[in-house]
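#data-curation
PF: Archiving a pair of folding outputs for the training set. Convention for this channel: one message per protein, sequence first, structure tokens after, nothing in between. First:
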Amino acid sequence: MKKVFVLMAGLFLSMYSFAQGGNKIYGIINANDEAALQGATIELLKASDSSLIKVALSNKDGKYEFENILDGQYILSASA
């Protein structure tokens, strides 16, 4: 009985972890002259109410990413 409970708990936790996997949003931010912007602040906002979800900084190549994002509509805001 104990082994069955442990097995079922393990299966439930593994399904839960897959459900929380989420999506990835990534991109590159450039200046007007198309040079990569290092250290730019990128904010991920919920489209419905503009609430802040996550913040990222662009790396030396201007790349940024947000991981484990649930399906939905978002707004990206950038400042440098």
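PF: Second:
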Amino acid sequence: MGKAGLGELELTIMNFIWKRSGPVTVPDVHEHLVKSRQLAYTSTMTVMGRLNDKGLLTRSEDRRPYKYWAAMSREDYSAELMLGVLSEFGNRKAALARFVDRIGRKDAALLAELAAKAGKQRK
């Protein structure tokens, strides 16, 4: 998966798929999308193919229609995105310090709790 985030349509498609409990087809996704926007079926098919190429979707080998499902959870995608951003800049400590400065107290406390828990699990 690349370091860049998802475009608006890609994110809309992924959110729909993450909410589903099983595989979806292009017609399933397209039917959902056209309720709120004008969009060609081929556009839906193209974007889902790109999401598959990016490693965010897995596609069945069966043809017509392909079945797609999320290759990773929303939480795993978020973590990968954050790690990608951190790896792009030289001073991780400064970037993390700014991040902690900007999040609210509750999130900062949660982050400290999770960091302590992770530290114990790694020992």
